[in-house]
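hey
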């Protein structure tokens, strides 16, 4: 019996990090503060999503359905905690956050991730 192959989810996170690096370099044109805000905004979305993805695809198959479900719950809880703690740490530890840059990149990474996953699953 053959199992369903795992999707290339690591590749999605790596592409997101490359796009984030390009956006950060582009923000350097404005200021170092803007570039750091862009980087932190992207990391607050990319790393928690990568955590969830790694947990969600840890197990596969009907025989491991209970492990799949508990792993997805654990991944979602970790994703929420990592996102919240990343945002809190950014705003507490970084005095001059460019909120617009932070939020634009944070929100931009979400549809980018959806598009990349859709392409990876084709």
């Amino acid at each position: 019996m053959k199992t369903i192959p795992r999707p290339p989810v690591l590749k999605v996170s790596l592409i997101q990090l490359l796009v984030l690096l390009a956006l950060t370099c582009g923000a350097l044109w404005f200021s170092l503060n803007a570039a750091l805000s862009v980087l932190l905004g992207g990391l607050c979305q990319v790393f928690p999503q990568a955590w969830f993805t790694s947990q969600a695809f840890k197990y596969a198959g009907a025989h491991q359905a209970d492990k799949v479900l508990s792993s997805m719950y654990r991944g979602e809880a970790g994703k929420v905690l990592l996102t919240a703690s990343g945002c809190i740490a950014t705003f507490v530890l970084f005095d001059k956050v460019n909120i617009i840059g932070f939020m634009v990149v944070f929100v931009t990474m979400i549809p980018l991730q959806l598009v990349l996953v859709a392409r990876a699953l084709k």
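The longest helix spans residues 65-93. The CA atoms of residues 31 and 51 lie 30 Å apart.
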